[in-house]
Amino acid sequence: MTPERLSEVNQPMTEKMIPDIVVGRLPLYLRSLRQMAAEGRQVTSSQELGERLGISAAQIRKDLSQFGEFGKQGTGYHIKFLEEKLQEILHVNRDWDIAIVGAGDIGSAVARYKGFSHQGFCVAMIFDNDPKKVGTEVGDFIVKDAANMVEEIRAAGIQVAMITVPASEAQGVANKLVEAGVRAILNYAPVNLSVPSGVRVQYIDPVIHLQRMTYYLE
Amino acid sequence: MTPERLSEVNQPMTEKMIPDIVVGRLPLYLRSLRQMAAEGRQVTSSQELGERLGISAAQIRKDLSQFGEFGKQGTGYHIKFLEEKLQEILHVNRDWDIAIVGAGDIGSAVARYKGFSHQGFCVAMIFDNDPKKVGTEVGDFIVKDAANMVEEIRAAGIQVAMITVPASEAQGVANKLVEAGVRAILNYAPVNLSVPSGVRVQYIDPVIHLQRMTYYLE
Fold first, then answer.
1. What is the model's pTM?
2. CA of A173 to nearest chain B CA: how many angstroms apart?
3. B119 touches chain A (CB under 8 A)
4. How confident is the model at residue B4 (pLDDT cuts 50, 70, 90)?
5. What's the helix, strand, coil split of chain B in %, to 5?
6. A113 and B120 in contact by Cβ < 8 A?
7. Chain A residues inside the 8 Å CB shell of B52
8. Which of B15, B202, B210 shows the shortest C-beta gap to A212?
9. What separation, in Å, do the N-terminal and C-terminal C-alpha atoms of chain A show?
10. CA dihedral in degrees (B128, B130, B134, B139; nearest 10)?
11. pLDDT value of residue B102
């Protein structure tokens, strides 16, 4: 269902009814607003946001209007206010602990990544099933034994996880994460995961992004 | 312009007219087909592809029909044939050399990543501007001095690059890549890049994907 249709039929605006494609653009708006705030800016417009993101100003206004009235005609958006509202909407006005499964190159890089702080996330633990890796240091963490993954994640109440294991092991890990109570999985393995409804999966696969661009190259 | 409109007005099917959102789904189809082929399968259907990907069968048929007739009513798609066709369409029936700029955790992990082979890509060189990193080994590569990036990339005729530097340096690197002749940039830095038309940018930012999921968590 498109945003246009939602407003045409004038249904009540509960969170459940916002199309995921719209939800997916909010983090981009939030990232641009943070960038502007870091530049010392206080006010912006849908035009400026649109130019930064390559999204039309009309689309941005339409997206935001589904969540409330955040700006005034002619005066634009107060950056700090809109930033806070988007954080609330996306539930990142708090920190979500993350469990990483897979302490290889990618998992270790993500565990050491400093970009999660103040964005709503905090890496809490990292697991591997390789006895040579278990007990070693990765950034600020000691790699835990994947054999205890379900119990440890459940005990910590962690709902967000990243899979950074080889493709052949990803589905097995996903099954365990679901068993442990995880409801949001960011999958770095280049394989589609099957999960029960109520569990979300997002994919990070550089090949997918690269192939989308080579289409346009000669 | 939506795919529906394209077929409604019955315009000639040149590559230029396919919406990028459709192009963006082709690598997902290709990945699933490869997976099926690896499982020893020979034939599939839009229904099965759709179930694996969480995309409707009708959408998949519509997407593919924009590029030609790849399957027959009732018999489905020959996996190997459709895989080859998609590789041709996406221009990954060849290998594209990639230059990586930034030999930190993420850049090093990507340089060592084995997932590019047989997918149309081959990491060719990695640069950094840190004298402590230049000349060191990362996987099969010796880190090159970023000061020579423009000349080396241009001399090698490389059109595809990845940016794995801190956010504050990403735009500067992008400018140099464009100067060097790069036309497709995969940006791992959490910042929007401004590039001339004719240059494509795709973004990999785990925060964006995570925030898209926490929207649905309580």
1. 0.87
2. 18
3. yes
4. very low
5. 45, 20, 40
6. no
7. 192, 194
8. B202
9. 35
10. -60
11. 98
Distance from the Cα of A180 to chain B's closest Cα (Å) equals: 16
Residue A83, min C-alpha distance to chain B (Å): 13
Q: Which of A53, A162, A213 sits opposite B192 (nearest CB)?
A: A53
Candidates B39, B210, B204; CA nearest to B106 is B204
Distance CA A126, CA A108 (A): 9
Looking at per-residue confidence, does B19 or B147 come out higher?
Answer: B147
Task: Output the pLDDT for position B37.
Answer: 95
Determine the pLDDT at residue B1. 33
- Give the residue ranges of chain A where pLDDT is below 70: 1-16
Provide the percentage of residues in chain B whose pLDDT is more than 90.
Answer: 80
Which residues of chain B neighbour A28 with C-beta distances below 8 Å?
A: 208
pLDDT above 80: residue B48: yes
Asked if B120 reaches chain A (Cβ–Cβ under 8 Å), the answer is yes
pLDDT higher than threshold 50 for residue B145: yes
Helical H segments across chain B, by residue range: 3-8, 20-38, 46-53, 57-65, 79-89, 105-112, 149-156, 167-179, 206-214
CA quadruple B214, A168, A213, B54: dihedral sign: negative
Residues in A touching B96 (Cβ below 8 Å): 210, 214, 217
- In whole angstroms, give the CA distance from residue B60 to residue B82: 12
